[in-house]
Design goal:
It comes from Lentzea guizhouensis. By secondary structure, the chain is mainly alpha-helical. It folds into two domains: about 55 residues, Homeodomain-like (Arc Repressor Mutant, subunit A, Orthogonal Bundle), CATH 1.10.10; about 130 residues, Tetracycline Repressor, domain 2. The protein is about 60% helix and about 0% strand. It has nine helices and no strands.
Amino acid sequence: MPRPSTPLLSPDRIRSVALAIIDRDGLDGLSMRKLAAELGVQAASLYGHVKTKDALLNDVASAILASIDVSGFASGDWRAGLIQCARSYREALASHPNIVPFLAYGPAGREESLNRLDVMHGALVDAGWSRREATMIAAGVMYLVFGAALSSFSSGFSADPADYSGRYPHLDRAHLLPGVARELDRDSFELALAAFVRGL
């Protein structure tokens, strides 16, 4: 059979290319016209697969959220479950930081997100937490994860020692932080997560 004159579209291919555009150009850089061009089709062809840009963003978000690991709750150890879930959530967001602001508005009816919250909530209630407390704990985990994903404390410092020397005696080594930002941000997240779980 002859090859089709236009590339075949599939949900996976549309999501993959959309996410690549977001990773490269940011949320505002994604448009249906640009997506169609990168897929090698006319924009009108996309609307047979995706109704709106928001629907597309929710599909992309759901694909990212599918990688979040809540299997740790199955052991009955809610602490281990929280830690494993939070780590995998941060890792998923760190891989695609440009979509984090879209995800930060909450589950928004996304099935992947609601399924994982349901597992977390159920495990916490089964462990003896009230429904209100379980909701607050889940929210606390989200605050930690999204706070870590939305900003880098360490890379916000200047690498020039003169910016701190003599003016801030306790920040005399702050200029070194940008060079170890990735490691320090990860360790800071782990410290906050451990303190949160211990506090509970």
